[in-house]
Amino acid sequence: MTKLAKPLAVSLGDPAGISPEIICDAWTRRADGRLPPFFVTGGADVLKAAAARRGLQVPLVVIDRPTEAVEAFADGLPVLGGPDGEYCPGEPDESGARLALASLTNASALVVSGQAAAIVTGPIAKSQLAKVGFAFPGQTEFVAAASGVPADDAVMMLAGPQLRTVPLTVHCALSEVPGRISIDLIRRRAAIVDRALRQDFGIAAPRIAICGLNPHAGESGRMGREEIEIIAPAVAALRAEGIDATGPHPADALFTEHARKTYDVAIAMYHDQALIPLKALDFDQGVNVTLGLPIVRTSPDHGTAFGIAGTGAARADAMIAAIRMAGEMAARRSGL
User: Do 238 and 330 reside in the same domain of the chain?
Assistant: First the structure.
């Protein structure tokens, strides 16, 4: 178990999804999961109902300040007093979205102000949040703004036991990807990844593999020239800067077992190129990590799963992995 002077802040996520129940499940497995103390921002009634629905014995300890969570954690799941609501699994609505947003806002503020060691965000439904004024593409951009970091400097990394991947472009149409990638974007994102792997993951000399965009990495220009005109020059520039980058690699071979041994992270050109291999290999333990922030932020790499919420089918492994990873990253930043 990671030793931290401050607890982690966990946002509730959408109360109609699986987040409340897997947060409760994570607390019951805190010892086996080697989890540091954490608290949830708001939603005490939702958490109580979610635990009961799942058949979990989870005493709740309502706290007034984050500092109280460390001592309370052994006796119950600490919940910071605040907004609450009804537990209606599988039935998302605007009141639940408001609760999710209030929890996310509070958790982010507590971490930015130094009252919590890191933030772990529960899954939200962006379409629901948009109805209550959420103007961000996702939680990554929200937390970046709360941290005072431009969205372009907040890098999404998906991390599991077998693979780490970074999508260069994220939530955009596939048709837009060729126009969005550039030498500068690859260089900036790779530099952020390199620093984060050193600082937060303890990798002294990170190896970064960079995917091609086209099949067979363009096959010497026969299937596109992005590899020749953008990706290869970016790799050369990174190597000149002292970053151990290689590529462009054909994406269809880069994620095989033997290839994964040759790098510490793969930078993909678009969303699915990064997420499909990660979810195929590490779906139940995949963690979404935001790199490039002055704070530590992680999240389970899955969605709200409204269809199975409240049925007991949802697994808490990714939430446990996200909490554990946040604690480990925060400990490294604190020099522990």
Answer: no
Instruction: Report yes or no: 290 and 156 within 8 Å, Cβ to Cβ.
Output: yes
Please report which residue ranges of 202-310 form alpha helices under DSSP H: 226, 232-240, 251-254, 257-260, 271-282
- Of 336, 323, 325, nearest to 69 (Cα)? 323
The tokens 């130094």 sit on which residue?
114
Nearest one of 256, 303, 268, 261 to 139, comparing CA atoms: 303
> 75 and 39 in contact (C-beta within 8 Å)?
no
Is pTM beyond 0.85? Reply is: yes
- The answer to whether 306 and 92 are in contact (CB under 8 A) is yes
CATH of residue 195's domain is: 3.40.718.10
pLDDT reported for residue 1: 57
Structural contact between residues 40 and 76, judged by C-beta atoms closer than 8 angstroms: no
* Residues spanned by the domain of 25: 1-150+294-336
User: Angle CA(188)–CA(190)–CA(194) in degrees, nearest 5?
Assistant: 120
CA dist., res. 333 & res. 296, Å (int): 9
Is the same domain home to 99 and 52?
Answer: yes
Tens digits of residue pLDDT in 243-260: 999 999 999 999 999 999
Helix, strand, coil percentages in the chain from 3-state DSSP, rounded to 5: 45, 15, 40
- Nearest alpha carbon to residue 296 among 267, 265, 325, 275: 325
Structural domains of the chain, count: 2
Mean pLDDT of the chain: 95
Q: pLDDT-based confidence at 2, cuts 50/70/90?
A: low
Do 53 and 193 fall into the same domain?
no
184: Cα within 13 Å, side-chain hemisphere: 4
Other Cβ atoms closer than 10 A to 310:
21
